[in-house]
Amino acid sequence: MSGAGEPEVRLLGSWASPFVLRVMVALRLKVVEYEMQQETLGNKSELLLRSNPVHKKIPVLLHNGKPISESLIIVQYIDEIWASTPAILPSDPYRRAVERFWGEYIGDKFSQVIRVLRGSVPGDKDKMAGEMFTALQYLEEAFVSCSQGKQYFGGDSISYLDIAAGSHLAWIKAVEKISGIKLLDEARFPNLFAWADRFCAHPAVVDVMPDPDKLVEFTVKHAAMCAPK
């Protein structure tokens, strides 16, 4: 249990992290009150190191003092603990498996492309952009299949896959500005483009989705911090 005066639900994270955004959206969908503890870049708190001693990374959800790590695991935990509607994971086992598959794919592919295009790790930017176009095409087709003509991957409401993919939208816009490469093009990916606007405007998302311009500023500051003195 949490100590006296401590919040029942606390989130250790950063406003700029797409993985932290996933958790915030899930909590807001379930109307769960939580306290956000911002972690400082390059200066991890003792609470974070103690709560996630294996990976030492955000996000970490503290529920009654008990830590849960890894963003998509946390999202599933939230869905199970606060079982009120809307459900985040589909009830159908096959649909649930499909959304989990795409969630893992997005986590692996999008993160690497974004790191290269923002310049935080070395890599061939043209090659990475090509890989991103392929990933977005797969996701465009997955949207048509999963949404069944409705507004979200989950149909009428935001689901696990909406959260997994939508968490990267602000960073995609930011790296478009940084790299000069248009990734989420309306003509090329019309369904995803329209879905992205709907997702960003959703009441559970709109107040916590980072501003792409602020992410560009964040990238510049991070690069300056990492530059040789």
Automatic annotation (TrEMBL):
Catalyzes what? RX + glutathione = an S-substituted glutathione + a halide anion + H(+)
Q: Give the signal peptide, or none.
A: none
According to the entry, every stretch annotated as the GST C-terminal domain falls at 92-223
**Domain of life here?**
Eukaryota
Q: Name one GO cellular component term.
A: cytoplasm
InterPro entries the record matches: Glutathione-S-Trfase_C-like (IPR010987), Glutathione-S-Trfase_C_sf (IPR036282), Glutathione_S-Trfase (IPR040079), Glutathione_S-Trfase_N (IPR004045), GST_C (IPR004046), GST_C_Tau (IPR045074), Omega/Tau-like (IPR045073), Thioredoxin-like_sf (IPR036249)
Q: Which family does it belong to?
A: Belongs to the GST superfamily. Tau family.
Enzyme class name: transferase
Question: Per UniProt, which keywords does this protein have?
Answer: Transferase
* Record keyword Transferase present: yes
Presence of the UniProt keyword Cytoplasm in the record? no
Q: What is this protein called?
A: glutathione transferase
Assigned EC number: 2.5.1.18
Query: Do you know which PANTHER family this protein is assigned to?
Result: GLUTATHIONE S-TRANSFERASE, GST, SUPERFAMILY, GST DOMAIN CONTAINING, GLUTATHIONE TRANSFERASE
Q: What GO biological process terms are annotated to this protein in UniProt? A: glutathione metabolic process; toxin catabolic process
Query: A GO molecular-function term, please?
Result: glutathione transferase activity
Q: Which residue range or ranges hold the GST N-terminal domain?
A: 7-86
